[in-house]
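Exercise 3.2. Students should predict the tertiary structure of the chain below and write it as structure tokens, then compare their answer with the key that follows.

Predict this chain's 3D structure.
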Amino acid sequence: MKIKIKRFNKQKSQDFYIEEFDILNTNTLKALLEVKQNYDKSFSFRYGCKSAVCGSCAIRVNGVEKLACKVKLKENDLIEPLNNFEVIKDLVVNLDKNEHFIKKSNAFLEEFSSNVVTKNDGKLIDLQSNCISCQSCFSSCPVSSINSDFIGPTSLTKVFRYIEDKKESLSKNKLDLIQKNGIWDCTLCGNCTMVCPQGIDSRSDILKLRMKSLQNGYTDPTIQTSFNMEFNPNGF
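Answer key:
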């Protein structure tokens, strides 16, 4: 079976190129290992657990984000690196951007509260806690591709997870950090939700963050801008 791989090696050229390989394995990760072993030992990609737990093998197949260890290939499939990240080499991308947005939005436990946490409380954030940071959602996001400052669905879902966590006492602080280049910039296209291998609905999490923001006194800047542009009390 023939597959195509989009490759990049800045030591050879500044341009991307497509290379075709004959492979025996239909599992994508095994096919990538086969290419490295049989064709080019310098071929670069990431993988770890081989069981869809670590998220490190995320790539795109025919333009759609997938975990290489989970997806099977078909004839002439095209494998590419994730979108919206700098490509270091072949399918390996620079993930520093993810760390930057996690820190920028405080998408982590900042300060322990004294609240008693029950099992039911834990169940409320169970889905978001399963995020494996594979960055498939960020890669699929059209806003991230045009706004390099957009916090993105990965961090916003993590923010929602910690705002809902009763152990966190600084929830309001997190809401403040996602007002600019955050929840209001999302177009709610739902790409992030469709590609998440864990079934996490980041679009829904962002909508809930918008609702929480309004309840805490923040305003929707998009409505304000639209109102100012279209409403003329003098009728001209």
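Discussion points: The chain is about 35% helix and 10% strand. The longest helix spans residues 202-215.
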